[in-house]
Amino acid sequence: xxxxxxxxxxxxxxxxxxxxxxxxxxxxxxxxxxxxxxxxxxxxxxxxxxxxxxxxxxxxxxxxxxxxxxxxxxxxxxxxxxxxxxxxxxxxxxxxxxxxxxxxxxxxxxxxxxxxxxxxxxxxxxxxxxxxxxxxxxxxxxxxxxxxxxxxxxxxxxxxxxxxxxxxxxxxxxxxxxxxxxxxxxxxxxxxxxxxxxxxxxxxxxxxxxxxxxxxxxxxxxxxxxxxxxxxxxxxxxxxxxxxxxxxxxxxxxxxxxxxxxxxxxxxxxxxxxxxxxxxxxxxxxxxxxxxxxxxxxxxxxxxxxxxxxxxxxxxxxxxxxxxxxxxxxxxxxxxxxxxxxxxxxxxxxxxxxxxxxxxxxxxxxxxxxxxxxxxxxxxxxxxxxxxxxxxxxxxxxxxxxxxxxxxxxxxxxxxxxxxxxxxxxxxxxxxxxxxxxxxxxxxxxxxxxxxxxxxxxxxxxxxxxxxxxxxxxxxxxxxxxxxxxxxxxxxxxxxxxxxxxxxxxxxxxxxxxxxxxxxxxxxxxxxxxxxxxxxxxxxxx
Length: 542
Ligand SMILES: [Zn+2]
Known about the structure:
The protein is α/β, with parallel strands linked by helices. It is built from 12 helices and 26 strands. This is CwfJ domain-containing protein.
């Protein structure tokens, strides 16, 4: 069903007037939601006494918000009172008025998927993702993380995508044109939003719609993006500061480009991805959008029971514990395990638990359910993480530890991943690690392990468990791969790998991760120690 939406440019503190106009419009239009794409508040340095009074009235519920409204992070810092209220109220400033967030993926009750990246690019945020959500700056990594959302109906950004005006005949005369960023162009190329909103001071700019080339990924349809940059409220030339439209998130894309449109003027920084690649992305949101998805179902494909907006392995999920994320690559990322099996004393030479998860960006139950190009890139990068970890363990552990990496490849799981842990080298060299996996499988009367390498798993026709064992006598890239294939007759225990290692390392009382939960400061300390050790081996850092 189509919903009516209004998007507003910079308000700069004039919200009493803007909200009044909005209330009048709303009685006629009946908006489902409103997005303020620019600055809701005046910059604290320009704020007058009246501005401050208005903010207090807003926070105290004395100004009525007629319709659910989300305000983006613009270029201005938020007033102190606003930050205080937001941080104590789960980002609700008052009834019907919510902070959209700096780096957001959300789905409204109407099924509209909104992705937002607020503020301005700050190349000096070097520690990966920006930690604090209210200051008006984002990092390259913040932008990269959002690519994991895969699709969007509406994209809201504080800055423009690099190259947006090329191939356009629409005039744009601004004294101070908005800054353009390559990482935002990347978002348009990957997410192919139906609408992309930004702001541009006192000037309005609506580009000709642009279309993305049809590919398997788009079910051979032609997604179209409308880029609209709003002027500020009260601008001297009466340029457009509010844009109202109807959006049906279930509508399918056109078969051919609409008249008056141009081809996508933006290129992805990674050329490989920019090419009209024949690959199909994960459908992130399980919302039954027949038109977008097509009817094809690949042999390994099974939809996970959890959709990506709730998935704790999806990097784009706002609720994941970002302080545990230790490295972000192109197709996969690495995070320290919550409730790790080892403690920081288990491997004295390391001094941190070193229980890591290597997780693909793609929300898929198995590697095999990814399309070829993505599957290869993802598997290669997961291996690269494993090898880099081995190098780190070799160097820090002075060859006293090897490693074990395990995976449950099972249709119906929400989001595939690997777990990585060091083990004492002598247990590997005496064959005890291999024996422990085999023995517990036998205890459960499961099929036996075979020694073989199934690579990215595409040739496999059944579910399987795999463990990759690395002996520090060997090169960090070497592995012994054991596979246990199983079918639905077996009630496979998802914690099998952890169970085996708990027995082997005499950590039985830690077998359930919930009993190993740490307080955040302790987690942060382990992560900091880990990052420090991994720094020189992290291929994603440059
Ligand atoms: Zn996921």
